[in-house]
Amino acid sequence: MPTGSPERRPRGPNRPDRQSAERRGRFAETIASLFLNLKGYRLVARRFKTPVGEIDLIMRRGGTLVFVEVKQRRSRDDALLAISPTARRRILRAAEAFLARNPDALALNLRFDVVALAPRRLPHHLIDAFSLDR
Predict the structure, then answer these.
(1) Which region ranges are annotated with the description Disordered (predicted)?
(2) Which residues pair with 82 in a beta bridge?
């Protein structure tokens, strides 16, 4: 067994495992967006980032604006459970920021959905997963 200091893993946003997770996340968002397109939704924004949070997808279908959180895990249940109360609050704050920048959107019905992805399974679209009312 070699002696000396243990191997150091790179830290920060450019770690190889972080980059891999980023690619998987982008791919999951693409699959979710295509899936929702097939259901009649139109993409308004992707990866809407604010200092207070991020929304994976913002979609519109008729008179409804939908803020979509996309989660990919080993199982659908794991994906649904991965959305913590803290994550919900971040998504809600980001949605408020989007609405502040796009006041015309306030005339639409607003909804928060989740698309859960798991290997070898069709995406699961959970409609009205949580509300703007905290």
Answers:
(1) 1-23
(2) none
